[in-house]
Structure formats: C-alpha cells, structure tokens
Amino acid sequence: MSTFRTPRRRARLALAAAITVAAALTGPVSQAAPATSTAPSPGAPGLGDPIFPLDGNGGYEVGRYTLDFDWQAPRTPFEASATIRATATQALSRFDLDFAGNTLHSVTVNGKTATTVRDGDELVITPKAALPRGKAFTVKVTYTADPTRIRHRDDAIEDYGWIPTPDGTVLYPQPDGAKMIFPSNDHPSRRAPITFHITTPAGLSAVANGKLTGRTEQADGRVKWTYDSEQPLATQLAQLAIGRFTFVDGTGPHGLPLRDVVPDDLVAPTEEYRKLTADHIAWLEERLGPYPFDRYGVLVGDTDLGVALETQSLSLVPKADLLGTRVDAERNLVHELVHQWTGDSVGIKTWSDLWLSEGHARFYERQYSQEHGGDDFETTMKTAYTSHDQWRHDYGAPAEPTEPNLFKRMRYDGSALVLFALREKVGEETFGKIERAWVTTYKGKTASTQDYVDLASKVAGEDLDGFLHPWLYGAKTPPMPNHPDWVVAPVQG
C-alpha cells in the first residue's frame, strides 16, 4: 500500500484482545500444537499474531475458496455464499472462521447443517460429526453481503472493507477487512487460491484477481463472471470490483499479459501513466528478477478514497493518483508493483513483519523516482534519518509496531531507511544479491524478519544480526554507515 497520495486521513479501530505470545516478534505465528490424543478438540480461535491475536484460525488449512456473489446495485445488500475446501490439521470438534458484518443464513459442513455461534468477528462452527485429523472437509456459508460495510483506522489505511463507487464497488481488505467480504482464515500467513463467481446486471462488468475463465449471459439478461486467482493469495490481497469498466489489454516484458480495468470515463485521462507499466516491470526485473505472477494490471478506483493497494496481480490505484503529475503517479504505480514481489509473492508471517513489505516498496519507489525526475533518494533517506528517533518514540521501531501505529510513517520511509543502511553496510552489489535471493528463496511463501536477517547474513558472508537488530528493534537509531555527519533530531514529547 502506498501512502504517497492525495492527503486524506480518518480514524478508527481499537482491538481490545490481549494475549501472551510465546514466540519473539520475529518468529512465526504461533499455532496450537497437534494434540497428543486423537480425541477431537476445538481449533484455536486465533493465530496469536502480536498485532491482531484473533485473526486467522487454528486446526485447519484452507485449500480453496469459491465465492458466489449475486450483485444487485450500489450500496444494496445481495445474496452471497462461500464454499471453503480445507484440511483438518488436528481432530476438530469445532473450528472458527473470521466473519464480520453480514447476515448469516446457513452453514453446512460436508453437506450437513452445522451449529453456529457468532462471537464478535468469530464464526464458531460445530459440525454434526467431528472432523478427523488429516481429512479434507467442505464448509459452505450462505449470507447476505452488505456492500456498505466499512471500518476505519487512524493511520494510512483510512477506510477499509467494501469501498463504494458511483456504479459499484472496489475492495480494500487490508489489513483484516476480508472478513467483512467473505468468511475466511483472515491472516497474511494463510494463503489459498480463490475462485470468484460474480453475477452482475447487464451493462456492468466484474473483475477479480487472476484470470477471467468464464463470462455467461443468462436468460434474464444478467451476466455471470468467473475468475481464478491462479496462485494462492492472502485474504488481505483479494480484489473484486464491479462497475462500468473498460478492459485495456497490453503486453509486458517477455509477453506478460497486462490488463487494466478502468471506469469508462477515465480511460483517456489515465492512459498516459497507465501505459508506463511495462517499463516499470522491466526496471524492477533488473533489480528483483522475473515478475512473480502470470499477469498484472491496474484497477483504477473511481472513489475519493486516496489510498492505493497491492491486491495480487491487480493493483488498486485511485483515480487521483493518475490525474496529477507524472512523478507522483509513477511513485504510486511503482510502489504497488514492487509489492507484487515483496508483500504478495513473498508474504509476511506476522503483522510485525510489515516493514519487509512496505519498506521494500518505499525503497524501490524512491529509487525509481530519483532516476525519473523525482527527489534525490539519499536526501530523502537523510531526512528520514533525522526523524527516526521521533518515529521510534511515536510509532515503535520498524519491526515493533503496535496496532494503532501499524501503517504509520515508520513502516514506510522509516523501514526503507533500514534497507538503505544495510546497503551502505554491505555495498550495492552484495545488497542486490540479498534482494534477489530474498524474492527467489521465498517466492510463493511467507517469511519473517528473522528469515530476512538470516538470509542477508548468508549472502553477505557475515553475521548481520548484530547490525540489523538495533535498526529493527532498538529504542535509538544507530549510526548510518558511511555517513558520520547524519544526525538524529532529539525526540519531542
């Protein structure tokens, strides 16, 4: 997600759950260990994430989501269902799905009606018969979806959930808003492919992550659209948009299919900057290696929400970002594109690892911008260095966010500064090797802060833990290698 945009900030969200996490913040998300007995037991209601402890669920792994949405009109509730194929990782007497804000109709497990309880954002499901460990099972949830359901955060996220447009909607699921869209295992460490079936009135189009695999005109004039995400994705990266769209096809490096999805009246005004995508991909491939997915495109958001989002293979970019200057537009376009490598393909294990996603996106965004008419990269890093102690005080160290400060300035320029410091420490050539090894080693996987430190140490041929740990977790900003003249400003307040 990019925070360089038309300024708009709103407020919301306080999570009152508090648990003790046994693992360090750099470790993997904790899960309930498999029971030594074969007796069925409840799956954990959350994964114990240090930021959102109740997000995600224990006891099973999702193999695929199939979503059916019968869209009617903007801001109008409509019928929906989610079919979830999963495998039990323990003998389950009951299990949870993350689900919020929709009217529940029915839940079946393996075709039989299950008992359900709503507990905040948890949908607690008790099947008629216990689920054996290692066995596949199918859950189907029918509900009425509410496309007005939105939550708010007092950081760069602003509004999230269903974001209305004049004739439809776009999705903004980050950080944990997918549960407002469909029942799910809503945590970035839990990924699965998604099949979308979206029925729209005549004259409206639907788009989602991945490939269009079917378009069927029905007898009543409505149209059914089917998309396959192709690769597994985290729920926070799901996209589903409905509106009066023009699909603009193109070709990127090595024949990569490009597909922009643009509101009809914005096709011409946004064309100049959208046409730069192929060049952006080529520039990033020189630094990070091959683009990691089967296709890419820009979804132009016809909304006043000034926030871009790296939804997998189809980045959501607000219209305002594409109607201003070229330097500003390219910063946002490149930022969301970088995320396809770091944040989407290489996912994060916990929300405390967010700096790996946003820091990389800001690092390459600013580097690209310097080479294409924007601000000097080193100057922006020096400015960030000056403020770094203040940001540590206000928002936590780069790898130690708190929930209210998750998407504050430290996770962007403050985290890019950590990567800049590493580059200064090991040199540009070794840093480039670290980065390419990072996106290659963990392609299609999730990784933690410690994974990055360990890999960087291996590639550099030296133990970098002692160097990176103070940058990532310390209360004070360390000296910047090669820049003894850089000074951190005193903390105020």
Helices and strands, with pairings:
Elements: E1 41-42, E2 60-70, E3 78-88, E4 92-98, E5 103-109, E6 112-113, E7 115-119, E8 122-126, E9 136-145, E10 150-152, E11 159-165, E12 168-172, E13 191-192, E14 194-200, E15 205-208, E16 211-217, E17 223-228, E18 233-234, E19 240-243, E20 245-251, E21 257-263, H1 267-274, H2 277-288, E22 298-301, E23 315-318, H3 326-341, E24 347-348, H4 354-371, H5 377-395, H6 413-426, H7 428-441, E25 446-447, H8 449-460, H9 465-473
Helix pairs in contact: 2-3, 3-4, 4-6, 5-6, 6-7, 7-8
Your description of this structure?
This protein has 493 residues and is an alpha+beta fold. The protein has a domain at 43-243: tricorn interacting facor f3 domain (Immunoglobulin-like, Sandwich). The chain contains nine helices and 25 strands. It has helices at 267-274, 277-288, 326-341, 354-371, 377-395, 413-426, 428-441, 449-460, 465-473, and strands at residues 41-42, 60-70, 78-88, 92-98, 103-109, 112-113, 115-119, 122-126, 136-145, 150-152, 159-165, 168-172, 191-192, 194-200, 205-208, 211-217, 223-228, 233-234, 240-243, 245-251, 257-263, 298-301, 315-318, 347-348, 446-447. The strands form eight sheets. It has an eight-stranded mixed sheet with strand order 6-5-9-3-2-14-17-16, with no helix packed on it. It has a four-stranded mixed sheet with strand order 1-4-8-7, with no helix packed on it. Mean pLDDT is 93; it is low at 5-36. Its cofactor is Zn(2+).
